[in-house]
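Residues determine shape. Take a concrete instance:
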Amino acid sequence: MTKNREELNDMMALLLEWVEEVGRIHLSKFRQEMVIETKTSRADVVTEVDKACEKYLVEQIESHFPSHSILGEESGVHSHSSEWLWIIDPVDGTNNYSQGLPYFSVTVGVQHLGETVLGVVFAPYLNELFSCVKGQGAFLNGKPITLGKKTELADCIIATGFPSDKGTNPDNNADLDLCYTAAGFLDGFWELNINIWDIAAGVLILEEVGGKIVFLREDGSRRLCPVASNPVVLPQMMQYLR
């Protein structure tokens, strides 16, 4: 492990406090009138809550770890040439959130020297908090989670999503989905053309319980195409997704 256990656990304790506060911000505006703007397309939306939550998280990180770098979905890169990088998605599932659907979360992954060592995904309406310190297992509301054990694709429940460029990208068909795969609620997940902040925490949580993830179109693109499942089902999914 890149850093000692005590240091990572101390960082996790702070992060858990911060995402719970973000969850309170989520719920204070959920299913109420809010300011909604578009970014790259009509389906790529941002709310005042996205901005407020990211601002809160950035302020907390900069206050406690002023030398660390940050990558936020809404505010971009806050670079300090640090070994540490915090990757933030303040509302993963903004379309759901703005529509009044309860499937949304705040997700934060922390990397040290390019390796993800902390991951948190909190879905406040569902009261589901997934957390992981690398090498220490993955948890849902403090209880260990285990990967699903199905072996035949025909028996599996597989999830996918529809990215923000679905209207213009003919190939198109996130973190919470990866967590559900890690916990065995889903047997697999795939999606096209998403960003690192959508999956940084979820990938660590999935891998910590023995799940596998591969990326389609390994062409150097900044957009990611993850395929995730247990080691037995993943190759079966790839037969179709290739």
Summary: The domain at 153-241 is CATH 3.40.190.80 (D-Maltodextrin-Binding Protein; domain 2).
